[in-house]
Amino acid sequence: MAFLNAFKSLVTVTVLSLTLAACSKVPGVDVTQGAAMQNQGALMIDVREPGEYAAGHAPGTQLIPLGQLERRISELAAHKDKPVVLICRSGNRSGQAQEILAKAGFTQALNVEGGMNAWAKAGLPVLTGLALR
User: Fold this and answer.
1) Average pLDDT, the chain
2) Burial bucket for residue 52 (CB in 10 Å: 0-12, 13-18, 19+)
């Protein structure tokens, strides 16, 4: 009986956590909104891996792979209360990056819905090669 009650509690907590996570999702921006924000001075971060970035990325983006984002957040401190636009291939990893930045106190982190797939499909400029740092 104790096991059953513990299991029910675990299921309840899990369902509540998933529900809250789904409800707390901040809407993203489409590629034209993301490009416009970048043109107005927003920082745009590409969270893909270097090889993906080299194959094609939006001009003016800063490459910070998702796996490095948490340990490199200090590099972004000046943008904590400014728009930060996040992009990846399809919008999934940049959505995860948005959550990481939100938890770190970034108030205007936005995910580009559809990522570089949608960016290229919209005919927006795409550069190839690695970023110079």
Assistant:
1) 85
2) middle
